[in-house]
C-alpha cells in the first residue's frame, strides 16, 4: 500500500481518505463512476485512488475541492469525513449513510413526537468506566437507552403548553453498510470555558451489536495524538486484499501491524491483543477517535 503526502498539517484529511480508499465498496463505486460532473468530487477521488494503487499520492486537488485554504492549520478529521461524503455522489456515499429516529414522549400526556433524519456517524460521550477506561460497548448501550428530562432539563410540550418531564429514545431506522462511531474526545469544558481534549483510554471491541440485532465488525480506526489545536492523525486499517492483515497509514508511511506486536505512533504505545491470524479481538487505545464498523454479512 502507498501513503499520502502531508502538505503541512493535512494528516486529518489523509487519515480519512485512506479509510475511504481501503473501504473496497466505496473505492469501487468511485472508480466505476463514468461521469465527471463538477457537482461531485468523485472524479478527484477516482484519480487519487488510482494513483494510490501505484505510488504515494498527492491530495492537492482534493484540498482545493474541499476549499482548504490553510494547509498548516489542524482540522477535525470527523468534520472533513462528512464534507467529503456530502460532496460525493449518492451511489458511493450511501454506504456510510444511515437514518436515525428520535422519539420524545411527554410523561404528562403520554403524547409521542417522532422525528427522523439521515446521519453519517453516531457520537459517543466519553465517560470513565469503573476500571478507569472508557467502554465503547457501554457507550453504545447508553446511546440507545432512553434519556429522562426532568427538573431543570424539562422539555416543552405543545399539547400541555408547559414544560414537562419527558423521555427521549434513539432508534436506527436504516442501518448503514458501514457504521461510524465518533468518540467525543473534543468537548466543551464549563470549568475552563473552552474546548478540551479527553485523553482517556478506550476499550474497542472487534464486533458490536446495534439494536435490532445488527452485527458490525471493526475494520478501521482513525487516531488522534496530541492536544486540541495540534497533534497528529493516523489510521489503522484492516485490508481484505492482504488476508485481513492490519496496516498503519501515517501520511506517506505505511507499515504492517505484526502478530502480537505493539506499534508506535508519535511515541505513544498502543498494545493490541490479537487472536488467530491478524484479527483484532479487542484493543485499548488512548488515541482512538473514529471507529469504522462494517455490517457483517455485507460485501
Could you explain how this protein is built, in words?
By secondary structure, the protein is of the alpha+beta class. It has a single domain, classed as Cathepsin B, Chain A. The protein contains seven helices and 22 strands. The protein has helices at 11-22, 24-31, 42-52, 60-65, 77-86, 90-93, 136-143, and strands spanning 98-106, 112-119, 122-124, 134-135, 147-149, 155-157, 162-164, 166-174, 178-183, 186-189, 194-197, 202-205, 207-210, 214-225, 232-239, 245-250, 253-256, 263-265, 268-270, 272-275, 279-285, 288-295. Strands 3, 9, 13, 14, 15, 16, 17 and 22 form an eight-stranded mixed beta sheet that branches. A four-stranded antiparallel beta sheet has the order 2-1-8-5, with no helix packed on it. Strands 4-12-21-20 form a four-stranded mixed beta sheet. Helix 1 crosses helix 5 (77-86). It is globular. Mean pLDDT is 87; it is low at 259-281.
Keywords:
22 strands, 7 helices, eight-stranded mixed sheet, alpha+beta, single chain, Cathepsin B, Chain A, 299 residues, four-stranded antiparallel sheet, globular
Question: Topology of this structure?
Answer:
Blueprint: H1 11-22, H2 24-31, H3 42-52, H4 60-65, H5 77-86, H6 90-93, E1 98-106, E2 112-119, E3 122-124, E4 134-135, H7 136-143, E5 147-149, E6 155-157, E7 162-164, E8 166-174, E9 178-183, E10 186-189, E11 194-197, E12 202-205, E13 207-210, E14 214-225, E15 232-239, E16 245-250, E17 253-256, E18 263-265, E19 268-270, E20 272-275, E21 279-285, E22 288-295
Parallel strand pairs: 3-9, 4-12
Antiparallel strand pairs: 1-2, 1-8, 5-8, 6-7, 9-22, 10-11, 12-21, 13-14, 14-15, 14-22, 15-16, 16-17, 18-19, 20-21
Helix pairs in contact: 1-5
GO molecular function: cysteine-type deubiquitinase activity
Domain USP: 2-296
GO biological process, one term: protein deubiquitination
Amino acid at each position: 500500500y502507498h501513503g499520502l503526502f502531508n502538505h503541512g498539517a493535512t494528516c486529518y484529511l489523509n487519515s480519512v481518505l485512506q479509510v475511504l480508499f481501503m473501504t473496497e465498496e466505496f473505492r469501487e463505486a468511485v472508480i466505476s463512476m463514468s461521469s465527471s460532473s463538477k457537482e461531485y468530487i468523485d472524479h478527484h477521488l477516482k484519480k487519487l485512488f488510482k494513483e494510490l494503487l501505484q505510488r504515494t499520492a498527492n491530495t492537492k486537488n482534493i484540498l482545493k475541492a474541499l476549499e482548504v485554504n490553510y494547509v498548516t492549520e489542524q482540522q477535525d478529521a470527523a468534520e472533513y469525513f462528512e464534507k467529503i461524503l456530502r460532496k460525493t455522489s449518492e451511489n458511493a456515499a450511501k454506504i456510510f449513510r444511515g437514518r436515525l429516529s428520535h422519539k420524545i414522549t411527554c410523561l404528562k400526556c403520554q403524547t409521542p413526537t417522532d422525528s427522523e433524519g439521515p446521519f453519517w456517524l453516531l457520537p459517543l460521550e466519553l465517560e470513565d468506566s469503573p476500571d478507569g477506561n472508557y467502554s465503547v460497548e457501554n457507550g453504545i448501550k447508553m446511546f440507545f437507552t432512553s434519556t429522562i428530562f426532568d427538573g431543570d432539563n424539562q422539555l416543552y410540550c405543545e399539547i400541555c403548553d408547559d414544560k414537562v418531564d419527558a423521555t427521549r429514545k434513539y432508534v436506527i431506522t436504516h442501518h448503514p453498510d458501514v457504521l461510524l462511531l465518533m468518540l467525543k474526545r473534543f468537548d466543551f469544558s464549563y470549568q475552563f470555558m473552552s474546548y478540551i481534549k479527553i485523553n482517556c483510554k478506550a476499550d474497542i471491541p472487534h464486533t458490536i451489536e446495534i439494536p435490532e440485532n445488527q452485527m458490525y465488525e471493526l475494520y478501521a480506526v482513525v487516531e488522534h495524538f496530541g492536544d486540541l489545536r495540534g497533534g497528529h492523525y493516523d489510521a489503522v486499517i484492516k485490508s481484505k486484499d492482504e488476508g485481513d492483515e492490519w496496516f498503519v497509514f501515517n501520511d506517506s508511511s505505511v507499515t504492517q501491524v505484526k502478530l502480537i506486536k505493539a506499534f508506535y505512533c508519535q511515541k505513544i504505545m498502543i498494545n493490541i491483543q490479537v487472536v488467530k491470524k491478524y484479527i483484532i479481538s479487542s484493543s485499548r487505545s488512548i488515541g482512538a477517535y473514529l471507529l469504522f464498523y462494517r455490517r457483517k454479512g455485507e460485501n
